[in-house]
Amino acid sequence: MKKRDLRIVFMGTPEFAVGTLKLMVENNYQIVGVITAPDRPAGRGQKLHQSDVKKYALSQNLKLLQPVNLKDEDFLTELQSLNANLQVVVAFRMLPEVVWNMPEYGTFNLHASLLPDYRGAAPIHWAIINGEEKTGVTTFFIDEKIDTGAIILQKETPIYKDETVGSLHDRLQDIGSQLVIETLKLIESGEDKTTIQPKIEQPKTAYKLNKENCQIDWNENLDSIYNKIRGLNPFPSAWTNLKTNDDLLMVKLFDVEKEEKSHNDAIGTITTSKTELKVSVKGGYIKINEMQLPEKRKMDIRSLLNGFNFSDGDKML
Questions:
Q1: Among the four residues 10, 126, 222, 244, which has the most C-beta atoms within 10 Å?
Q2: What is the pLDDT of residue 94?
Q3: What per-residue confidence (pLDDT) applies to 289?
């Protein structure tokens, strides 16, 4: 079969997508357009913030589109004018059928899980939170539902026992970028074959993260709490209420360790020394190495203990 001449539109927004776009550029794929989110106000000054994908696209002089509405007629006309025959999506929003069905060779997505498990917005986080021992990346052709399309390729990787979402994110970014290139080569040669996703009665879901599901419940067991904190470290971070004297402070937790040990301490009891802070839970203690107090920067626990005095009776709630 004659090698296909690919004309690609790339769609993505966050830093996770940049690695794939960069590798496509380095492999000399013809990228006729890049679609990313509109600039948004961010930070205390509410200055307009460009997406990571936009910054990289501009550095490479790539054609850039930033539609607010993916069904807008002007946008659709401009997208059609790019004459792309393939679209690649990495960490973008849900596409209407008029967009994903436009190119001749279809639209495929890179998803950071082993589909059909962990469909949804936060697959990397939930794999760690749920204590999985492995995860991976999947390329699949987009259809009318979320993350349900026919699978092209998958690549598996272990989740290490002390791994955080930050380190797993970076590893999956690299693995996923390579998988996209492998997928492009298959489509380019016309040898791409797909597998329909197996039907699972109760697939594991990657729910969107919010304030409520990032809060620590200290009544859970040692492993569950440990997995949740590392599955949210460093972003968006786990949080809890610290009861100290008559104050109730919302604090964020980052690097932690777990200590399996029998004890009779009440759940949430704080134990400190000059260099250590531990919280009692079912089955042991959570040792906190990094924490952030309200309106303060993230601090290692030794530095925090030098300037913050815990009292008898202080608890994590």
A1: 10
A2: 95
A3: 98
pLDDT at 41: 84
Tokens in use for 137? 């990346």
**For the chain, which residues score pLDDT lower than 50?**
none
Distance separating alpha carbons of residues 259 and 67, to the nearest angstrom: 50
Tokens of 314: 């202080």
The two three-digit tokens of residue 291, written as one number: 């924490």
Q: What CATH class does 8-189 carry?
A: alpha beta
Q: CA-CA distance, 124 to 208, in Å (whole number)?
A: 11
Query: Considering the entire predicted model, what is its pTM?
Result: 0.94
Dig out the tokens for 195 from the structure: 């597998």
Which pLDDT value is given to residue 214?
A: 98
Positive or negative, the Cα torsion across 79, 83, 87, 90? Answer: negative
Domain positions in the chain: 8-189, 212-316
CB 75 within 8 A of CB 69: yes
Which class is 212-316 in CATH?
Answer: alpha beta
**What's the Cα-to-Cα distance from 106 to each of 15, 45, 86, 100, 285, rounded to whole Å?**
24, 41, 6, 7, 51
Q: What type of residue sits at position 247? A: D
- CB-facing half-sphere around the CA of 132: CA atoms within 13 A: 26
Which one, of 90, 125, 82, lies nearest residue 16 by Cα? 90
Q: Can you give 157-189 as a three-state secondary structure string? A: EECCCCCCHHHHHHHHHHHHHHHHHHHHHHHHH
Token couple for 74: 């002007």
